[in-house]
Design a protein that fits this description.
It is a single chain. The protein has 640 residues and is mainly β. The chain has no helices and 49 strands. The strands form 14 sheets. Strands 7, 8, 10, 11 and 12 form a five-stranded antiparallel beta sheet that branches. Strands 28, 29, 31, 32 and 33 form a five-stranded antiparallel beta sheet that branches. Strands 36, 37, 39, 40 and 41 form a five-stranded antiparallel beta sheet that branches. The radius of gyration is 36 Å and the shape is extended. 26% of the residues are buried.
C-alpha cells in the first residue's frame, strides 16, 4: 500500500514517487520495485496428481504477491518460461517426467508479481538440477511354467508399478550346476518364453532358476532383481521321443483317397499319440491330425480333403511322435514324404484361388504381372484383369490368356499402362479373376509398388566353407550399391564399382542351411528383394578335441552410441580369447568382417568412429589354448 501522499492545496493525493535525503543525496523510498525471490530448495520426487516433478520452494515476500515458476533445459529460464505454474504460495511442482530431460541439466526459476501495482520483478531467481531418472521398482509375482513338449519355460510376472521404465531384463540359469546366468535383453511385456536351445543347451532341470528386473532410463538404471523361481513341475522325466520313420503316403488308384503308414520310433518310450500334417506343395501345412497310438500305424484321411485335386498335384506329408505332458520332450518331425496324384482327371468345377506373385516393370509403358495358377478346378481359359493406378484412381479392365507360361511354372502377362498411368513406376491394385467353362473362381486382390530400381537376379553361391558363403548376382541398371541379407539380417553392403556384384558373408554356423537375399540401392531408393537363395554351409573341420565355446553377452555400451561391450564366461584351458564381429549397415565404415586375436581377460570393449548409428553388430568368441589352437566359436550375439 502506498503510504506517501502530497497536498495539492485542497486535499491529500497519493504520491507517484517518494524520496528521502540521507545526508548526502536523495534516495528513492517509493516505489522500491518487486524484490528478487530467494529460493530455499529444489528436489525431484514423485508427486500425486503431477507425477515425476521438480519441487521448488522459496521464501515468500512481505505484501501481496503472486509467484510464477517454470523451467528451461540447458540454459536459465526467461520470463516467457515462468508461466507454467502460478501460485500465491511458496511451492511449485514442475513436471520433469519427460524422458528427454533425463540426464540433462534443467534450470528451474521463479519471479514475483506485485498484485497492488501489477508490477513484475525484473530479476529471475533460478537454480539448476541434473534430472536423474526415477529408479524402477522390482517386478513381483514371478512364475515359471514348463512348456510341454519343448525346450522353453513360460515366464510371467506382475507389471512394474514404476512411473517410468523401458522394459525388463530376464535371466535364467542352472544355478546348482554352477552355470552362468543367461540373459535376454529388451523384453517389452510382462511375459517371456525362455528357450534354452538358443544357448546350445538341452533343456531344463530342477536346479534351474529365473529372475527378472525392470529397466529404467540410462545405462545403469535397473530395479533390484525379483525373487527367483524354479520351473516345474517335473513329473517323471523321461528321454525325448525318437523320430517317426518310413512315412509312406499312398493314393487309392484313380481316386482322391489317401492313406499313410509309418514305423514307430526305435528310441524313447512308447508314444502316446502321433501328430500328422500334410499340405499342397508350395502352400501352408494343413491343420494337425491327432492320431491315437493303437499299434496299427496307419491312417486314412477324410475324403473331402483332396476333393479338388487334379492330375500332377503334389502333396507333402510329415509326422511326429508325442509324449504326455510332463513326460519329456516330444519327437521331432519326420522327413517330408511326397505324393503326386495320378489318374484323377480335372475336377468339373470353377477354378480355385490363384496367387498374385509380383508386378514389375516390363518396358517404358508396360508392367509384367505374374501369378500362380489355381491348383484345382477345370483348366483356366481366361483371366479377367482389373488394373487400378492407386495414385490417380484410374482403372481399366482387360482379358488375359489363361495359359501364358513363365519358366518357373507361374503365369505372366505384359500389360500396357498408358491408359491408366503412362509410366510403370507407381502403386498398382491388381484384381485378377480366373475363369473356365464352369464359371469364375475367386478374385485375387493385391497392391504392388513398381520401383525404378529392378531387383537383383540370378542369385547364386560361389565359394562355400563351414562358416562363410560367397554370394554373386547379375548387375542392376542404375544401382549404386547392393545390400546382402542372411536369414533376414543385413550382413553386407557392397558399393559399385568397388565391390561389384558379389559379397562374402562370414561368421555363419557350420552344417546349417542359410537363406540369402539381395536388394539394389540408388540414393534413398531400395528395390524389392531378389529371389531367395538357400545355401548349406559345410561341416566344421575335424580338428580333434577342441576347447568348448564360451557363453557370450553383447550389449551397446550406453550412453555412447559408438561403443559396444562383449563379455563371456571363462573356459578351462584357455590362454587367450579370439573375437570376430560383423557390422550390418551401409553408413560409415563399421560394416564388414573383423577378427580380434589374443584378447586377455573376459571382456572386450570396442569404440569406433566407423560405427554407424543404429548399426547391428554380430559378435562371436572362441577360446585359444597355450599352443594357439582355436576352440569352438560361440553362438552369434547381436547388439544395436
Amino acid at each position: 500500500m502506498n503510504d506517501y501522499h502530497v497536498f495539492n492545496g485542497s486535499t491529500w493525493m497519493p504520491a507517484a514517487e517518494a524520496y528521502k535525503h540521507n545526508g548526502q543525496a536523495w534516495e528513492k523510498v517509493w516505489p522500491l520495485g518487486v524484490p528478487k525471490v530467494k529460493i530455499l530448495s529444489v528436489e525431484q520426487k514423485e508427486v500425486d496428481g503431477v507425477g515425476f516433478a521438480a519441487v521448488l520452494k522459496w521464501e515468500k515476500l512481505q505484501g501481496r504477491y503472486d509467484y510464477h515458476a517454470g523451467l528451461h533445459v540447458e540454459s536459465p529460464p526467461t520470463i516467457g518460461d515462468l508461466h507454467a505454474y502460478e501460485t500465491p504460495e511458496d511451492t511449485a511442482y514442475l513436471f520433469i517426467g519427460n524422458p528427454a530431460y533425463f540426464g540433462k541439466t534443467v534450470y528451474v526459476g521463479v519471479v514475483a508479481q506485485d498484485l497492488n501495482t501489477s508490477t513484475w520483478g525484473t530479476e529471475i531467481a533460478w537454480v539448476s538440477i541434473v534430472v536423474q531418472p526415477p529408479t524402477p521398482e522390482a517386478p513381483t509375482d514371478l512364475k515359471a511354467t514348463l512348456t510341454p513338449g519343448s525346450l522353453t519355460a513360460s515366464l510371467t510376472w506382475a507389471d512394474s508399478t514404476s512411473t517410468f521404465f523401458t522394459g525388463y531384463e530376464v535371466q535364467g540359469g542352472n544355478v546348482k550346476g554352477g552355470s552362468p546366468w543367461n540373459t535376454a535383453f529388451n523384453v517389452s511385456g510382462s511375459t517371456y518364453e525362455f528357450d534354452t536351445s538358443q544357448y546350445g543347451l538341452s533343456g531344463f532341470g530342477e536346479s534351474w532358476e529365473f529372475r527378472v528386473r525392470t529397466k529404467g532410463f540410462g545405462s545403469n538404471s535397473y530395479s533390484p532383481w525379483s525373487s527367483s523361481v524354479r520351473p516345474g513341475p517335473f513329473t517323471n522325466p523321461v528321454q525325448p521321443q525318437g523320430q517317426v520313420v518310413d512315412v509312406k503316403p499312398r493314393q487309392v488308384p484313380g481316386e482322391r483317397r489317401v492313406s499313410v503308414t509309418w514305423s514307430s520310433p526305435t528310441n524313447g518310450v512308447t508314444p502316446k499319440r502321433y501328430i500328422l500334417q500334410c499340405g499342397r506343395s508350395g502352400y501352408a501345412w494343413s491343420p494337425e491330425f491327432t492320431i491315437a497310438h493303437d499299434g496299427s500305424n496307419s491312417y486314412e484321411f477324410p475324403e473331402n480333403l483332396f476333393v479338388d485335386e487334379r492330375d500332377g498335384a503334389l502333396w507333402n506329408f510329415r509326422m511326429r511322435a508325442m509324449n504326455d505332458v510332463g513326460e519329456g520332450l516330444n519327437g521331432g518331425w519326420s522327413t517330408n514324404e511326397q505324393l503326386t496324384f495320378r489318374g484323377v482327371g480335372m475336377p468339373d468345377r470353377p477354378p480355385g484361388p490363384l496367387k498374385l506373385v509380383s508386378v514389375e516393370r516390363g518396358g517404358s509403358t508396360t508392367i509384367n504381372i505374374r501369378w500362380t495358377p489355381p491348383d484345382y478346378g477345370g483348366d483356366v481359359r481366361t483371366n479377367q484383369l482389373r488394373l487400378t493406378n492407386v495414385g490417380t484412381g484410374r482403372s481399366r479392365e482387360t482379358t488375359l490368356s489363361g495359359d501364358t507360361h513363365h519358366p518357373n511354372g507361374d503365369r505372366q502377362s505384359n500389360v500396357s499402362v498408358s491408359a491408366v498411368g503412362g509410366s510403370p513406376y507407381a502403386t498398382w491394385r491388381v484384381e485378377l479373376t480366373p475363369t473356365n467353362d464352369y464359371g469364375d473362381g475367386p478374385t485375387a486382390d493385391q497392391q504392388f509398388t513398381v520401383n525404378r530400381l529392378a531387383s537383383p537376379t540370378n542369385l547364386r553361391a560361389g565359394a562355400v566353407t563351414h562358416d562363410s558363403v560367397e554370394i554373386l548376382w547379375d548387375p542392376v541398371e542404375n544401382a549404386t550399391a547392393y545390400a546382402v541379407f542372411s536369414n533376414g539380417l543385413m550382413r553386407g553392403f557392397t558399393p559399385v564399382p568397388d565391390a561389384g556384384t558379389h559379397a562374402e558373408v562370414g561368421a555363419l554356423l557350420p552344417d546349417t542351411e542359410h537363406v540369402f537375399q539381395v536388394v539394389s540401392v540408388f540414393n534413398d531408393e531400395v528395390s524389392e528383394g531378389s529371389e531367395v537363395l538357400a545355401v548349406h554351409t559345410a561341416a566344421a573341420p575335424d580338428e580333434g578335441l577342441m576347447l568348448p565355446a564360451p557363453v557370450v553377452k553383447l550389449e551397446r555400451n550406453k550412453p555412447a552410441w559408438n561403443k559396444w561391450q562383449a563379455s563371456w564366461t571363462a573356459v578351462d584351458g584357455a590362454a587367450t580369447y579370439r573375437l570376430k564381429w560383423t557390422g550390418s549397415t551401409p553408413e560409415g565404415g563399421g560394416h564388414g568382417d573383423h577378427t580380434l586375436p589374443d584378447v586377455d581377460g573376459l571382456s572386450y570393449q570396442y569404440t569406433g568412429t566407423d560405427l554407424a548409428w543404429n548399426e547391428t553388430v554380430t559378435c562371436q568368441v572362441a577360446a585359444v589354448d597355450a599352443t594357439g589352437k582355436e576352440g569352438e566359436w560361440s553362438l552369434p550375439q547381436n547388439a544395436v
